Protein backbone atom coordinates (compact mmCIF):
# COMPACT_ATOMS: atom_id res chain seq x y z
CA UNK A 1 0.00 0.00 0.00
CA UNK A 2 2.83 2.41 0.88
CA UNK A 3 4.55 1.61 -2.41
CA UNK A 4 1.36 2.30 -4.37
CA UNK A 5 0.91 5.62 -2.56
CA UNK A 6 4.52 6.56 -3.36
CA UNK A 7 4.05 5.73 -7.04
CA UNK A 8 0.87 7.80 -7.11
CA UNK A 9 2.69 10.79 -5.56
CA UNK A 10 5.46 10.49 -8.15
CA UNK A 11 2.93 10.43 -11.00
CA UNK A 12 1.02 13.39 -9.61
CA UNK A 13 4.19 15.44 -9.11
CA UNK A 14 4.99 14.94 -12.77
CA UNK A 15 1.52 16.11 -13.78
CA UNK A 16 1.79 19.25 -11.66
CA UNK A 17 4.34 20.69 -14.09
CA UNK A 18 3.20 21.44 -17.62
CA UNK A 19 5.53 19.40 -19.82
CA UNK A 20 6.63 19.56 -23.40
CA UNK A 21 8.29 16.27 -24.29
CA UNK A 22 11.06 15.79 -26.83
CA UNK A 23 12.86 12.64 -27.78
CA UNK A 24 10.28 10.16 -26.44
CA UNK A 25 11.01 9.04 -22.90
CA UNK A 26 14.62 10.26 -23.00
CA UNK A 27 14.17 14.00 -22.44
CA UNK A 28 11.26 15.96 -20.96
CA UNK A 29 11.33 19.76 -20.79
CA UNK A 30 9.07 21.34 -18.21
CA UNK A 31 8.54 25.08 -18.23
CA UNK A 32 8.11 26.57 -14.77
CA UNK A 33 5.14 28.88 -15.26
CA UNK A 34 3.20 29.04 -12.01
CA UNK A 35 3.60 28.69 -8.27
CA UNK A 36 2.63 25.04 -8.42
CA UNK A 37 5.51 24.16 -10.70
CA UNK A 38 8.45 25.95 -9.16
CA UNK A 39 11.89 24.37 -9.20
CA UNK A 40 11.73 24.52 -5.40
CA UNK A 41 10.05 21.12 -5.65
CA UNK A 42 13.12 19.79 -7.44
CA UNK A 43 15.49 21.22 -4.85
CA UNK A 44 13.33 19.80 -2.07
CA UNK A 45 14.58 16.33 -2.98
CA UNK A 46 18.02 17.44 -1.78
CA UNK A 47 19.19 17.56 1.83
CA UNK A 48 19.04 21.01 3.43
CA UNK A 49 22.85 21.18 3.45
CA UNK A 50 22.98 20.79 -0.35
CA UNK A 51 20.25 23.38 -0.92
CA UNK A 52 22.25 25.84 1.16
CA UNK A 53 25.38 24.88 -0.74
CA UNK A 54 23.75 25.59 -4.11
CA UNK A 55 22.76 29.06 -2.92
CA UNK A 56 26.28 29.73 -1.63
CA UNK A 57 27.96 28.47 -4.80
CA UNK A 58 25.75 30.63 -7.01
CA UNK A 59 26.39 33.64 -4.80
CA UNK A 60 30.16 33.11 -4.96
CA UNK A 61 30.07 32.84 -8.75
CA UNK A 62 28.53 36.35 -9.00
CA UNK A 63 31.73 38.22 -8.27
CA UNK A 64 32.14 40.18 -11.48
CA UNK A 65 32.25 43.96 -11.29
CA UNK A 66 28.65 45.04 -11.85
CA UNK A 67 29.71 48.41 -13.27
CA UNK A 68 32.00 46.75 -15.81
CA UNK A 69 29.27 44.26 -16.69
CA UNK A 70 26.88 47.14 -17.44
CA UNK A 71 29.50 48.84 -19.62
CA UNK A 72 30.04 45.66 -21.64
CA UNK A 73 26.31 45.01 -21.95
CA UNK A 74 25.60 48.47 -23.33
CA UNK A 75 28.55 48.65 -25.74
CA UNK A 76 28.83 47.61 -29.39
CA UNK A 77 30.61 44.26 -29.65
CA UNK A 78 32.81 42.95 -32.44
CA UNK A 79 34.39 39.61 -33.15
CA UNK A 80 38.06 39.86 -34.09
CA UNK A 81 37.20 39.37 -37.76
CA UNK A 82 34.51 42.05 -37.71
CA UNK A 83 36.82 44.48 -35.93
CA UNK A 84 39.73 44.02 -38.34
CA UNK A 85 37.38 44.31 -41.31
CA UNK A 86 36.12 47.67 -40.03
CA UNK A 87 39.52 48.89 -38.75
CA UNK A 88 42.10 47.22 -41.04
CA UNK A 89 44.99 49.22 -39.55
CA UNK A 90 44.25 48.00 -36.02
CA UNK A 91 46.68 45.08 -36.35
CA UNK A 92 49.50 47.33 -37.58
CA UNK A 93 51.97 48.65 -35.07
CA UNK A 94 54.56 51.39 -35.46
CA UNK A 95 56.80 53.15 -33.00
CA UNK A 96 55.79 56.38 -34.69
CA UNK A 97 52.17 55.84 -33.70
CA UNK A 98 52.87 56.70 -30.08
CA UNK A 99 52.12 60.32 -29.19
CA UNK A 100 54.17 61.68 -26.30
CA UNK A 101 52.69 63.50 -23.35
CA UNK A 102 53.48 65.03 -19.99
CA UNK A 103 56.00 63.17 -17.82
CA UNK A 104 57.27 60.98 -20.68
CA UNK A 105 61.08 60.85 -20.86
CA UNK A 106 62.94 61.02 -24.17
CA UNK A 107 66.53 60.87 -25.46
CA UNK A 108 67.47 63.37 -28.19
CA UNK A 109 70.50 62.65 -30.38
CA UNK A 110 71.94 65.23 -32.82
CA UNK A 111 74.42 63.39 -35.04
CA UNK A 112 76.18 66.47 -36.47
CA UNK A 113 76.76 68.01 -33.03
CA UNK A 114 77.16 65.47 -30.17
CA UNK A 115 77.31 68.31 -27.62
CA UNK A 116 73.65 69.01 -28.36
CA UNK A 117 72.63 65.45 -27.56
CA UNK A 118 70.44 65.24 -24.47
CA UNK A 119 69.60 62.13 -22.45
CA UNK A 120 66.67 61.73 -20.10
CA UNK A 121 64.70 64.81 -21.12
CA UNK A 122 61.43 64.79 -19.19
CA UNK A 123 58.45 66.38 -20.87
CA UNK A 124 56.69 68.84 -18.58
CA UNK A 125 53.15 68.29 -17.38
CA UNK A 126 52.05 70.90 -19.91
CA UNK A 127 53.85 69.11 -22.75
CA UNK A 128 57.02 71.22 -23.21
CA UNK A 129 60.76 70.54 -23.33
CA UNK A 130 63.76 72.90 -23.36
CA UNK A 131 66.54 72.43 -25.91
CA UNK A 132 69.86 74.29 -26.39
CA UNK A 133 69.67 77.34 -28.70
CA UNK A 134 66.02 76.66 -29.49
CA UNK A 135 64.55 77.13 -26.04
CA UNK A 136 61.04 75.99 -25.18
CA UNK A 137 59.33 73.55 -27.55
CA UNK A 138 55.80 72.16 -27.33
CA UNK A 139 55.90 68.42 -28.08
CA UNK A 140 52.62 67.31 -26.48
CA UNK A 141 50.77 64.94 -28.82
CA UNK A 142 53.66 64.54 -31.27
CA UNK A 143 55.21 61.27 -32.42
CA UNK A 144 58.97 60.72 -32.18
CA UNK A 145 59.38 61.35 -35.91
CA UNK A 146 57.45 64.62 -35.61
CA UNK A 147 59.68 65.75 -32.72
CA UNK A 148 62.77 64.85 -34.77
CA UNK A 149 61.51 66.98 -37.65
CA UNK A 150 60.62 69.88 -35.34
CA UNK A 151 64.07 70.03 -33.67
CA UNK A 152 65.90 69.56 -36.97
CA UNK A 153 63.91 72.36 -38.62
CA UNK A 154 64.45 74.77 -35.69
CA UNK A 155 68.22 74.15 -35.68
CA UNK A 156 68.50 74.85 -39.40
CA UNK A 157 66.13 77.85 -39.39
CA UNK A 158 68.13 79.41 -36.54
CA UNK A 159 71.36 78.91 -38.49
CA UNK A 160 72.79 76.77 -35.71
CA UNK A 161 73.47 73.91 -38.13
CA UNK A 162 73.52 73.72 -41.92
CA UNK A 163 71.93 70.30 -41.78
CA UNK A 164 70.58 68.49 -38.75
CA UNK A 165 69.86 64.79 -38.37
CA UNK A 166 68.01 64.17 -35.13
CA UNK A 167 66.86 60.93 -33.48
CA UNK A 168 64.34 60.82 -30.65
CA UNK A 169 63.74 57.72 -28.51
CA UNK A 170 61.22 57.31 -25.72
CA UNK A 171 62.85 55.80 -22.64
CA UNK A 172 60.07 56.16 -20.08
CA UNK A 173 56.35 56.20 -20.75
CA UNK A 174 54.24 58.02 -18.19
CA UNK A 175 51.47 59.58 -20.23
CA UNK A 176 49.65 56.60 -21.78
CA UNK A 177 48.12 53.85 -19.71
CA UNK A 178 46.11 50.66 -20.03
CA UNK A 179 44.12 48.63 -17.50
CA UNK A 180 43.98 44.86 -16.98
CA UNK A 181 41.08 43.40 -14.97
CA UNK A 182 39.40 40.07 -14.32
CA UNK A 183 41.09 36.70 -13.95
CA UNK A 184 44.63 38.04 -13.90
CA UNK A 185 47.21 37.67 -11.14
CA UNK A 186 48.03 41.38 -10.78
CA UNK A 187 45.11 43.46 -12.04
CA UNK A 188 45.63 47.20 -12.25
CA UNK A 189 46.71 50.17 -14.34
CA UNK A 190 50.01 50.07 -16.26
CA UNK A 191 51.95 52.68 -18.26
CA UNK A 192 51.71 51.94 -21.96
CA UNK A 193 55.01 51.36 -23.71
CA UNK A 194 55.68 51.50 -27.42
CA UNK A 195 54.90 48.40 -29.47
CA UNK A 196 53.01 46.67 -26.67
CA UNK A 197 50.38 44.08 -27.51
CA UNK A 198 47.78 42.01 -25.68
CA UNK A 199 50.26 39.31 -24.60
CA UNK A 200 52.61 41.98 -23.25
CA UNK A 201 49.77 43.29 -21.10
CA UNK A 202 49.02 39.78 -19.80
CA UNK A 203 52.70 39.27 -18.95
CA UNK A 204 53.07 42.62 -17.17
CA UNK A 205 49.95 41.88 -15.13
CA UNK A 206 51.44 38.66 -13.79
CA UNK A 207 49.83 36.22 -16.19
CA UNK A 208 46.37 34.69 -16.37
CA UNK A 209 44.73 33.24 -13.27
CA UNK A 210 44.04 29.92 -14.98
CA UNK A 211 42.17 28.48 -11.98
CA UNK A 212 39.37 31.00 -12.49
CA UNK A 213 39.62 32.23 -16.07
CA UNK A 214 37.44 31.39 -19.01
CA UNK A 215 38.49 31.00 -22.62
CA UNK A 216 37.70 34.53 -23.76
CA UNK A 217 39.18 37.99 -23.34
CA UNK A 218 37.84 41.41 -24.24
CA UNK A 219 39.45 44.69 -25.19
CA UNK A 220 37.30 47.68 -24.33
CA UNK A 221 38.58 50.70 -26.23
CA UNK A 222 37.62 53.85 -28.07
CA UNK A 223 37.57 54.02 -31.87
CA UNK A 224 36.53 56.77 -34.23
CA UNK A 225 33.10 56.06 -35.67
CA UNK A 226 31.71 58.64 -38.12
CA UNK A 227 33.93 61.34 -36.68
CA UNK A 228 33.15 60.57 -33.05
CA UNK A 229 35.10 58.56 -30.47
CA UNK A 230 32.91 55.67 -29.36
CA UNK A 231 33.55 52.82 -26.96
CA UNK A 232 33.56 49.32 -28.40
CA UNK A 233 34.26 45.78 -27.19
CA UNK A 234 36.49 43.41 -29.18
CA UNK A 235 36.11 39.73 -28.28
CA UNK A 236 39.29 37.62 -28.41
CA UNK A 237 39.91 33.89 -28.13
CA UNK A 238 42.30 33.98 -25.17
CA UNK A 239 42.81 30.22 -25.05
CA UNK A 240 43.92 30.07 -28.68
CA UNK A 241 46.08 33.17 -28.32
CA UNK A 242 47.95 31.79 -25.30
CA UNK A 243 48.62 28.57 -27.20
CA UNK A 244 50.21 30.57 -30.02
CA UNK A 245 47.52 29.62 -32.51
CA UNK A 246 45.94 33.02 -33.17
CA UNK A 247 48.47 35.82 -33.45
CA UNK A 248 45.90 38.12 -35.04
CA UNK A 249 44.28 38.35 -31.59
CA UNK A 250 47.55 39.77 -30.24
CA UNK A 251 46.41 43.29 -31.07
CA UNK A 252 48.50 46.40 -30.41
CA UNK A 253 47.40 48.23 -27.28
CA UNK A 254 45.94 51.73 -27.37
CA UNK A 255 45.97 54.43 -24.74
CA UNK A 256 43.19 53.84 -22.18
CA UNK A 257 42.56 50.27 -23.37
CA UNK A 258 40.91 47.97 -20.84
CA UNK A 259 41.88 44.31 -21.23
CA UNK A 260 39.29 42.22 -19.43
CA UNK A 261 39.55 38.47 -18.83
CA UNK A 262 36.16 37.27 -17.57
CA UNK A 263 35.97 34.65 -14.89
CA UNK A 264 35.04 31.15 -15.97
CA UNK A 265 31.35 30.31 -16.08
CA UNK A 266 30.15 27.36 -14.05
CA UNK A 267 27.54 24.64 -13.89
CA UNK A 268 26.59 22.79 -10.72
CA UNK A 269 26.34 19.08 -9.88
CA UNK A 270 24.16 18.06 -6.94
CA UNK A 271 22.50 14.97 -5.53
CA UNK A 272 23.59 11.42 -6.20
CA UNK A 273 26.92 11.94 -7.95
CA UNK A 274 30.24 11.13 -6.35
CA UNK A 275 31.65 14.68 -6.42
CA UNK A 276 29.05 17.40 -6.02
CA UNK A 277 29.92 21.07 -6.46
CA UNK A 278 30.62 23.69 -9.12
CA UNK A 279 32.47 22.92 -12.34
CA UNK A 280 34.02 25.46 -14.74
CA UNK A 281 32.42 25.62 -18.14
CA UNK A 282 35.51 25.78 -20.32
CA UNK A 283 34.66 23.53 -23.24
CA UNK A 284 32.69 24.57 -26.29
CA UNK A 285 30.16 21.82 -25.57
CA UNK A 286 29.56 19.71 -22.48
CA UNK A 287 26.73 17.17 -22.41
CA UNK A 288 24.94 15.81 -19.38
CA UNK A 289 26.70 12.45 -19.73
CA UNK A 290 30.08 14.23 -19.80
CA UNK A 291 29.10 16.41 -16.84
CA UNK A 292 28.20 13.35 -14.78
CA UNK A 293 31.52 11.78 -15.73
CA UNK A 294 33.33 14.96 -14.60
CA UNK A 295 31.57 14.57 -11.25
CA UNK A 296 32.88 11.03 -10.82
CA UNK A 297 29.76 9.29 -12.06
CA UNK A 298 26.55 8.23 -10.33
CA UNK A 299 26.38 6.85 -6.81
CA UNK A 300 24.87 3.40 -6.32
CA UNK A 301 21.51 4.85 -5.27
CA UNK A 302 21.19 7.40 -8.09
CA UNK A 303 17.94 7.65 -10.04
CA UNK A 304 19.67 7.51 -13.42
CA UNK A 305 16.42 7.82 -15.35
CA UNK A 306 15.29 10.98 -13.54
CA UNK A 307 18.33 13.24 -13.73
CA UNK A 308 17.17 16.87 -13.82
CA UNK A 309 18.63 20.09 -15.16
CA UNK A 310 17.31 23.36 -13.72
CA UNK A 311 17.95 26.10 -16.27
CA UNK A 312 17.13 29.79 -16.72
CA UNK A 313 16.50 30.85 -20.33
CA UNK A 314 15.41 34.41 -21.12
CA UNK A 315 14.04 34.83 -17.62
CA UNK A 316 12.05 31.59 -17.78
CA UNK A 317 12.99 28.69 -15.54
CA UNK A 318 12.92 25.25 -17.10
CA UNK A 319 13.30 21.77 -15.67
CA UNK A 320 14.76 19.26 -18.11
CA UNK A 321 14.37 15.65 -16.99
CA UNK A 322 16.76 13.24 -18.69
CA UNK A 323 16.81 9.46 -18.81
CA UNK A 324 20.59 9.06 -18.77
CA UNK A 325 20.34 5.27 -18.94
CA UNK A 326 18.50 5.54 -22.26
CA UNK A 327 21.35 7.65 -23.63
CA UNK A 328 24.22 5.50 -22.41
CA UNK A 329 22.70 2.02 -22.64
CA UNK A 330 20.12 2.22 -25.41
CA UNK A 331 22.17 3.79 -28.15
CA UNK A 332 20.46 7.20 -27.98
CA UNK A 333 23.61 9.33 -27.70
CA UNK A 334 22.17 11.73 -30.25
CA UNK A 335 19.73 12.88 -27.57
CA UNK A 336 22.45 13.67 -25.01
CA UNK A 337 21.55 17.12 -23.64
CA UNK A 338 24.05 19.97 -23.87
CA UNK A 339 24.82 21.74 -20.60
CA UNK A 340 24.80 25.53 -20.44
CA UNK A 341 26.62 27.83 -17.99
CA UNK A 342 24.57 28.28 -14.83
CA UNK A 343 22.77 24.94 -15.15
CA UNK A 344 22.07 23.08 -11.92
CA UNK A 345 22.11 19.31 -12.47
CA UNK A 346 20.31 17.35 -9.78
CA UNK A 347 20.45 13.56 -9.58
CA UNK A 348 17.74 12.39 -7.16
CA UNK A 349 17.90 9.28 -5.03
CA UNK A 350 16.28 6.14 -6.39
CA UNK A 351 13.14 5.04 -4.54
CA UNK A 352 13.92 1.37 -5.09
The helix content, as a percent range, equals 10-25%
SS class: alpha+beta
Count of helices? 10
Element string (H = helix, E = strand):
HEEHHHEHEEEEHEEEHEEHEEEEHEEHEE
**Percentage of residues in DSSP E strands:** 25-35%
What is the CATH C-level name of the largest domain? Answer: Alpha Beta
Q: Looking across the biggest beta sheet, what order are the strands in?
A: 1-2-18-17-20-14-15
First CA to last CA: what distance?
15 Å
Which CATH architecture of the largest domain?
A: Roll
Number of strands: 20
Major sheet:
7 strands, mixed
List segments where confidence is low: pLDDT < 50 over at least 5 consecutive residues.
1-23, 33-37
Give a nutshell description of this structure.
The protein has helices spanning 2-15, 40-43, 48-61, 66-73, 80-86, 144-157, 198-204, 238-242, 288-294, 324-329, and strands at residues 19-22, 27-31, 76-79, 105-110, 118-122, 128-131, 135-138, 166-172, 177-182, 188-191, 216-225, 228-237, 258-261, 265-271, 277-281, 286-287, 307-313, 316-322, 338-339, 344-347.
Task: Write up this protein.
With 352 residues, the chain is α+β, with helices and mostly antiparallel strands. The protein folds into three domains: 16-63 and 266-347, Outer membrane lipoprotein wza fold like (Roll), CATH 3.10.560.10; 66-95 and 176-261, Roll (Outer membrane lipoprotein wza fold like), CATH 3.10.560.10; 99-172, 2-Layer Sandwich (wza like fold), CATH 3.30.1950.10. Helices cover 24% and strands 30% of the residues. The longest helix is centred in the first third of the chain and has 14 residues, at 2-15. It is rod-shaped. The two termini are 15 Å apart. Mean pLDDT is 81; it is low at 1-23 and 33-37.
